[in-house]
Amino acid sequence: MAKNINSFNDAVAALGGVKAVARLTGRGMPNVCQWRSRNGAFPASLYPVIKAALAERGYEVPIDIFTFELPTKRPGTGAYDETKRAKRV
User: Fold this and answer.
1) Region 71-86 average pLDDT
2) pLDDT confidence of 68, banded at 50, 70, 90?
3) Containing H/E element for 30?
4) Given 1.10.260, 3.90.550, 1.20.1740, 1.10.8, which CATH number is that of 3-81?
5) Interval 64-88 mean pLDDT
6) How far is CA 87 from CA 9, 18, 43, 67, 69, in A?
7) Helix 18-25 crosses helix 47-56 at what angle (to 10 degrees)?
């Protein structure tokens, strides 16, 4: 049974810390720290890399720890507004 990741910080810890995430993604440690401080999420482009690395360690990854731009419903219309970013819960 896969273990759950509940936050960006949980994912970083499960991957071995900031330095390990920087090495895994080919980005600098300052980048990883910026992701944490800006929005607590990985760039969407890293989804396949992070998902695979965590899956190898037995974790399931929630999509909301990534900065995907998801469609949201316009209030009162039920129609989707694809120009706004979905709010993270």
Assistant:
1) 60
2) confident
3) helix 29-38
4) 1.10.260
5) 65
6) 19, 25, 15, 10, 9
7) 120
